[in-house]
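Sample intake — Aldouronate transport system substrate-binding protein
Collected from: Paenibacillus qinlingensis
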Amino acid sequence: MVKVFKKGVLGSMTAMLMLSGFLVACSDKDGGASTATTSPSGSNAATPSKEPEKPAKIRVTLWDRANAPEGQNLGNNPIIKYVIDETKKVGLDVEFVSLPRAQESEKLNVWMASGEAPDVILTYSMDTIFKYAEQGGLWELDSYLAKYPDLIKNNKVALDQVGMYKGKRYAIPALKANTYSGPNMKIRQDWLDALGMKIPTTNEELYQVLKAFKEKDPGKVGKDKVIPWALPAINQSMKAFYYGPMFGFGVNMDGPSNQFYAPDGNYKNGVFTSSVATPEGKAYYQWMNKVYKEGLISKEFVTDVSSQQFTQQVNSGAAGFVDSNDTPWNLNVATRKSVPTATWVPVEPFKRPDGTQVMNKVSDFSMLVAVPKSSKNPDAVMKYLNWMVEPKNLATVQSGIEGVNWKDDGGVKVQIDPELNKKTTWVSLAGDLAIVQQGGPALNKEQLLKSVALSLPDQKQREEYANSFVLYYDIFKKFGKPNTVIDSPRPVAQKTVAAIEKSLYEGVSKVIISTDFEKTYAEMLAAWERAGGKDYDKEISDAYKTMKK
């Protein structure tokens, strides 16, 4: 794993600007107008009152993950209403613009080309930020950010790592408050117990477990219905991945983050090679091809582009193994509605041929917030982000209304009514609304127990909940490594990354289901090369050589 390269961005000049910004903010606390004035002659005569300033209109992207409960939408949600109402008090008129998560890149390209993008655009890809910055499509944000010291203070760790391009800031990274999370493998412990089997520690052991799930149906769901490994279509919006099994074959996460949800490649002897072109990557896909042919993955996974089939397989209790961003506890809640005895547990990273174990964990930063040049008011966007870092506002956009969705108990948010929360706080899931900070710090066992004191009245359930999260966090603490950060210009990636990702989404699916693996794998590799894969890898290799100087 290549060492993370961080570049500081908040120097003494910024500190001076922060101070001046603070003074400006204090003087403008009430919208720039005082309640009484003194006339030029020094008398107490009142001057004519000014017309109240019209709120600054900003349109904010909000990803649509197709998870809104019945009767709920962006126009009918108490948290959205809170944001709209409260930001008016600071002179903002906020409108949310829905963007289907599966169409993020495509739609964003259309918006940027047409000049119709919202004032706030979101992406997880630094290459996307670099591309639009190079094209002159984004506002430089240094001077605007400097006026908002609260935002700088809250997000400093993230700001010090990413968002810069050629020495100028073009994106505000969301802070990831709890880094002990990310893609992780989970398996049905109740199925293992029924078979007398242990949690797998290698890919070969996983294969044997999946075969046993298929042949012996420990969940009694029906041999024609059991899904040993639940996997949706491989695309930008997929809810499950294959990080863990691919790590097990020796593929690393040595490259910068991308939007293709799998380990991205290995850096050896000064050369980076994308996973698709490594011997380890080929061996993994050949193994996946075998697993698919033996019916250990859903036969229809390629058509499950919205992950609805995957969700149904988990919720119904038909699935035995997944690799996703979900926590084991959340899967328990979902599956136990159909199978009360279902128990999902985390799986430690598989032992690789060299004996090592590794898994990916999230970095200190998350999504990147940018302002397109078509926006008329970048300062209003910074004002919106600064409004959000105020503790009450951040707590609301993350968790819902205090006193309705949760109550405070010594700094711990205690859920009041989980069923109500599912109907109202769906808009906060995945941190799509709280775009300045995703989540809070990891809780210890005592805090975890306190957090569910009302929602889980049974002491045994509370203990299971707390123990589940403690184990989950401990695995990431022990084995997790973040992506490498390259915050230098990458013109090749700017031109090729979208085409590369598209070729892999299509190619990997074909390889997994192919009846002629060697032929289909060669076709995938050729498509990757045509999309610019080798040039992409060379650029990363060159960047790492520069970073090591």
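Post-analysis note: The CA atoms of residues 381 and 532 lie 35 Å apart.
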